[in-house]
Amino acid sequence: MPTKLFNELPEDKKQRITQAALEEFAANRFDDASTNTIVKNCGISKGSLFKYFESKEDLYFYLTDTVAAKMAQETEGMIKDLPEDVFERIAAYSEIEISYYTEHPAEGKLLMNLASERDNNISAKIASRYGDRSQDIYGQLIEGTGFDKSRSDILKWVLEGFNKEFLEKGGGSDYMESLAPYLEILRKGI
Questions:
Q1: For the domain that residue 74 is a member of, what is the CATH number?
Q2: For 104-121, how does the pLDDT look when each residue is reduced to its tens digit (9 = 90+)?
């Protein structure tokens, strides 16, 4: 988390630091992201950066927390109005999520990197910090649709596998095209 000194900075300087960090962590996974690049791009010294954040990890989690909260805030109203049919609901939610990523490409890439992080040390910290939020999302999507536990578990398992594979391949704008056949198979099969 940021230090008191960071919170006391002028807003424009905080924005420059945050934007430079966002761009670097969106372009690279955690281990490959460079604090040297961040400080160069925002015009501060490396010493200053570490007066504002105790470590690269603190900066990373500040950024991921901020982006996740922003996404949740911007999409919250849309999520409340999802269709009742579970498959239509999943498709609609997916479109909301992909639209957010399209409108906010750096934030979207950061969140995709977060979800697909492979380094054991940071992955463990991500799991500890965020738990299994995908389970929470799937639970909310399926809640009230009449799906029993076994059908819900099958649906979650398939969607998690699809999303994991999609993210490992680097994501892309064809998410909905790729997801549609799976949803149709699921609709007919479960």
A1: 1.10.357.10
A2: 989 988 988 887 777 778
